[in-house]
Specification:
six-stranded antiparallel beta sheet; alpha/beta; eight-stranded parallel barrel; 646 residues; TIM Barrel; Immunoglobulin-like
Amino acid sequence: MRDWRFYGIDFNSYPYYGGDDLGVSYSASRTVIRIWAPTAIQVELYLYTQPNGGTAIRIDQFEKAENGTWLIGINGDLNGYYYTIKVNDGSWLNETPGADARAVGANGLRGLIFNPVQTNPEDWENDRRISMPNPTDAVIYELHIRDFSVSPASGMVNKGKYLAFTEEGTRSPEGLKTGIDHLKELGITHVHFLPVFDFLTVDELDANKTYNWGYDPQNFNAPEGSYASNPNTISRILELKMLVQSLHRAGIGVVFDAVYNHTYHTRRSYFNQTVPGYYYRQKPNGTFSNASGCGNEVATERSMVRKYIIDSLVYWATEFHLDGFRFDLMGIYDLETMNQIRAKMDTISPSILLYGEGWTADKSPLDENWRAVKTNVPRLNRIAVFNDDFRDGIKGNGFQAESKGFVNGQTIQEENIKFGIAGACFHPQIVYGYVERSKSPWATEPWQCVNYAACHDNYTLFDKFVLSSPDATEDELMRMVMMAGALVLTSQGIPFLHAGDEMARTKQGHHNSYKSPDSINQIDWTRKHTYNQVFTYYQSLIELRKSHPAFRMTTASQIREHLIFSSDYQPGVASYVLVNHANDDEWRTILLIFNGNRSEISFELMPHIKWRIVAQDSLIDTESTRLVEGTAIKVAGISMLMLVED
């Protein structure tokens, strides 16, 4: 029985291999496979004609090569064959596809040898990334591939599949746009997909049997097969590229969720079945540490782990023409690895977005001073972090159903709201002692801050408001959802929306739906009709942001120069002006008033300014000619009022 405790092993002494040929290198005449397995004493290759079951048609021996690698070459055209690798480091480990597999058979148990040219859709060579002059120009929309299309009301044929994103002209039962047409209509700039790499807990041969968000990594370099039309073939690669191509043609960028911080299996992971212990951090007693909360955490600071992550990201970015990556539990990653990722992405395209969660799920043995947590954002190079201060200020604690924020009735959240409005940057008018989580600004520039009110974790925005305000009317609930969106989409930084916010998405009150059925997780497209006022409001907010650079300033100094918070305090009210053509906006002065109270308030206006009403209640009209009469204006409960100097 193998002892899976690692006492005093100097993993840093393991040899480093700097080549770019790890994994399978295919040609029609010869296939070469190289793996890094420095502790191995013997390595075998098993070749199969089928993805599961049966016996190997041949077994070949790898030869020991330089810097801890093992190499094998087989003559002939192996396109379409499956393979596994088995390592002996004193005892035989399990057969695996190896950590570098880029295609696998159903359920990821065997690697698939393939001709990369055959994975490119027609006109793929002309596919281009979406270029953003500045990250604050982005409007990100977080989406699970299956949720998007699986509802009977989606109007899409390829339900739960990559190919659903290639369908145009789809409609809901009420005749409203769904699918990719909906995304274009809404106006978002980027779709952020929950994990699309091969994950473990969904049976790819029966994708309707179980559901999962996908934060259970198995093969980091191969696309998930349950979203493909045939998980045993290269269709999982081809169809994912078709998804990217379709979104790019619609002018929408593609961001993938990167979950290199842990693996689903620990002892049985493909990492541990190749180089036991090396890829993971350990506690002082030699057991696996668990900052991910999933049983292990990846040791990003070790040289070959860092190389693995960077090589993998380069593959995804180049092979799939990606526009960005979101890092799950980025607080597990070391700062040096994250900064090397940024430097490498810049050689591909400086416009590639990088952002992540600046925290962990549990304690890590790696000193926090060296990890990519929120307080270390100034030491990250052009990498953004989620603003959970703003999130909780808007709606309350996500883990407590009854907890309230500024929008749903907690009138002591004004400083949290101001913190988000300023993009987590220093602003002299913010009293940081009253900010609930962060007692000081952690962003040095607004593009380091991702503002959001909801994501796949915890309750949907609508459900949170229903549960925290059980006496709220339907109109008040809609106002809450709209006001939360208004706060996110008019604040400085990078705005981020949870798919379905714009139609008051519900998961029927479920708090953690990571493995709940489609009936809970699916986007119910009939709600676009029921809550069309909410959709239209979000659509108008996005257009407002895209049309007016004042809401997407690029530097903290601009924010301090052009953004002035009101000094006239009212409980449950946050207000500010953007002055002197902020960020070269055509509007000279913009006044925003957010009333988190359920009742109407009166707001005193600056004298000698002729104000025009742009947003009031649930309507936004940038071409409006309505002028304010008098020196005060009424602001409806739970709403944003926006005025501009006429």
